[in-house]
Design goal:
By secondary structure, the protein is an alpha/beta fold. It folds into three domains: 31-114, Sandwich (Immunoglobulin-like); 131-255 and 299-527, TIM Barrel (Alpha-Beta Barrel); 534-614, Sandwich (Immunoglobulin-like). Helices cover 26% and strands 21% of the residues. The strands form six sheets. The chain has an eight-stranded parallel beta sheet. A hairpin with a 5-residue loop joins strand 5 (67-74) and strand 6. It is elongated and about 90 Å long. The model is unreliable at 17-24 (pLDDT under 50). The structure holds calcium ion (CA). Calcium ion (CA) binds at residues 141, 143-144, 146-147, 164, 166. Calcium ion binds next to loops.
Length: 615
């Protein structure tokens, strides 16, 4: 610590000295973002944010074949310049000399434009995938050297402190994830959160272009994505455009007062997510929702500022092009400016046609999530958001699978799915039993897996893109009432010296292995099931019978799922389900490998399920 402070002091003195010298000779450029760009992008426009003392007073000249200045925009703060360049398709990779001059002072900044290495573009994700959501601080600590930095020291006893997990830890357990049957990894944000007290969750970004050093370097992130691809999986990066961390470097010297909403003064958002589409919403409540700050430590970014809007869009393109990610999950979706979001989705998919973005559309009702999905007829404007989150189904699942009534609860799930006409594309919704912000689906002290198995079977066979939260497969528990930290416990075995290692079957209890093996069986089978990943859904009303039957049909592939929520064994006549059974006579049970005769009635155990490949 002593060495660090001494180092800081030296830096400060050096900076002061440099500033004094600079005032009489050369100009100082403290930051340039993005640090580089690429030639051959479909969008020839590039914005470069230049930050340095009085750089805003400088004029700019550029002499580079194929590159011309579109605009040099100043803001009310003389320490910023927003340089807009047009990079033609004929421009070659190299260093663009940006020549700044103000009076007798001048300087040249050589700006790199590189060759593209990712022209094939991202893979995107869809219903053929299953996402595995990881809280990077809590999964595995692969590098103890990066644990303690600045004020945020690792303390695994404190659920709200940093625990030391990192990219290296995730990298070392990719075989575990692949073996389970996952196709896509989604990490909670990994960009720098240099906040007092820790901010282990990642949602208070203090540098949009830099990995948090406690997780690793940009290069390590690049390598992680490369490893994921080499194992045949994909990567979804979490992004946060609604707010930044209050310790973001620009908060000390904002480009303009309107960079942050509410004139850079803390006003709490009312979290009134529905006000966006509520035709009766009070205008003031609506404004307070989108312009209020998420928390005091998370100032609200004003995406109506054109420089900031372009900055954020480019930031996402930069990460796609740099790290080769396949998708983005965007935080607090409804809290942002609609037009900005629509422009963002459109521009990203123009550059990378197969890319997919999922927005955190947190609503109790499916109509509101549907309002946000691309091509919705519920709003006159198009969001261009391919995947919204189906929270409505999550809440109904949680309440339903917890329900103690004998026969009724599957009707609620059926009825929610029956509202799918409201969605432009229900097959592209993200579906989940829980995530990092909700009580975990697994309950403490459950002695059998009936509820778990039924929940998983439903999640992995109904329409949509399933997402699992890390640790679900080993029955990790935690409730919202215990605090967010309890939802994001350390994965056992991820830390050197851990008493148990749930990454290996030897380290798991019998019931954990039962859950794990069941999950693996379904996930591995799902990957190759055209019916479940691409098929149409046809379902039948349970009619208070406690039995929900549905089929997924793609060409001559059919999967039939039978869920029995009743406490008693039930026998079901098959003739009612002729739409899905067709000419098939047998069902091969994916879980038990047994064969079921569909020409007769079928008996299904209490709280049991069949997932049948028809033949
Ligand atoms: Ca670490």
């Amino acid at each position: 610590m002593y060495i660090l402070s001494k180092y800081r002091l030296t830096l400060l003195l050096f900076a002061l000295f440099f500033l004094c010298v600079a005032s009489v000779s050369a100009m100082t450029i403290s930051r340039v973002e993005p640090e580089n760009w690429w030639v051959g992008m479909k969008n020839p426009q590039l914005q470069i944010m230049v930050y340095g003392p009085d750089i805003g007073k400088a004029s700019l000249t550029v002499n580079y074949p194929g590159v011309k200045i579109t605009e040099v925009a100043k803001t009310e703060n003389p320490n910023y310049l927003f340089v807009y360049l047009t990079i033609s398709s004929t421009a070659k990779a190299g260093l663009i000399p940006l020549h700044f001059k103000a009076g007798s002072q001048e300087t040249t900044y050589n700006y790199p434009i590189k060759s593209r290495s990712y022209e094939a573009g991202a893979m995107g994700f869809n219903a053929s995938d299953v996402l595995y959501l990881i809280t990077p601080d809590r999964f595995a600590n692969g590098d103890i050297k990066n644990d303690n930095m600045d004020d945020a020291t690792v303390n695994r006893k404190n659920p709200n402190a940093r625990h030391g997990g990192d990219l290296e830890g995730i990298s070392r357990h990719l075989d575990y994830i692949k073996d389970l049957g996952i196709t896509t990894v989604w990490l909670n944000p990994t960009q720098e959160n240099n906040m007092k007290g820790g901010s282990y969750h990642g949602y208070a970004i203090t540098d949009f272009y830099k990995m948090d050093p406690r997780f690793g370097t940009n290069q390590e992130f690049y390598s992680l994505v490369k490893n994921i691809h080499q194992k045949g999986m994909k990567m979804v990066m979490d992004m946060v455009f609604n707010h930044c961390g209050s310790n973001h470097w620009w908060m000390k010297d904002l480009p303009s007062q309107d960079w942050i909403n509410d004139s850079n003064k803390f006003v709490q958002t009312n979290h009134s997510t529905v006000s966006v589409m509520d035709i009766h919403a009070s205008p003031s409540e609506k404004k307070k929702f989108t312009d209020g700050w998420f928390t005091r430590g998370m100032p609200d970014l004003n995406q109506r500022n054109r420089h900031l809007a372009t900055y954020l869009i480019q930031n996402s393109v930069w990460w796609i092009e740099f790290a080769h990610i396949d998708g983005i999950r965007q935080d607090t979706y409804s809290y942002m400016d609609f037009d900005f979001l629509a422009r963002w989705c459109k521009e990203v998919r123009t550059e990378y046609p197969d890319f997919n973005i999922v927005g955190e559309t947190w609503y109790n009702k499916s109509a509101s999530s549907a309002w946000w999905q691309e091509n919705s007829v519920l709003d006159s404007k198009n969001s261009h958001l391919k995947t919204s989150m189906d929270f409505s189904l999550t809440f109904i699942n949680q309440a339903s699978f917890d329900s103690k009534t004998d026969n009724g609860y599957l009707d609620n799930i059926f009825e929610d799915i029956a509202q799918d006409f409201i969605y432009p594309d229900p097959y592209n919704l993200l579906i989940f039993l829980d995530n990092h912000d909700m009580s975990r689906f697994n309950h403490e002290g459950e002695t059998d897996l009936k509820r778990y198995k039924q929940g998983l079977a439903f999640l992995l066979t109904t329409r949509g893109i399933p997402q699992l939260f890390y640790g679900t497969e080993i029955l990790m528990t935690g409730t919202k009432e215990e605090g967010d930290g309890a939802l994001r416990k350390d994965f056992p075995g991820g830390w050197p010296g851990d008493q148990t290692d749930a990454f290996s079957s030897n380290g798991r209890t019998a019931i954990q292995n039962e859950a794990w093996n069941y999950t693996q069986k379904l996930l591995q089978w799902r990957k190759n099931s055209a019916a479940v990943t691409q098929g149409k859904l046809i379902h039948y009303a349970p009619n208070k019978s406690g039995v929900y039957v549905y089929g997924r049909i793609k060409d001559n592939h059919t999967v039939m799922v039978i869920l029995n929520s009743a406490l008693k064994e039930q026998t079901v006549q098959m003739d009612r389900f002729s739409d899905i059974i067709g000419k098939n006579t047998k069902g091969h049970d994916v879980i038990t490998s047994s064969t079921i005769d569909l020409t007769k009635s079928v008996t299904i155990p209490s709280k049991g399920e069949y997932v049948l490949d028809l033949e």
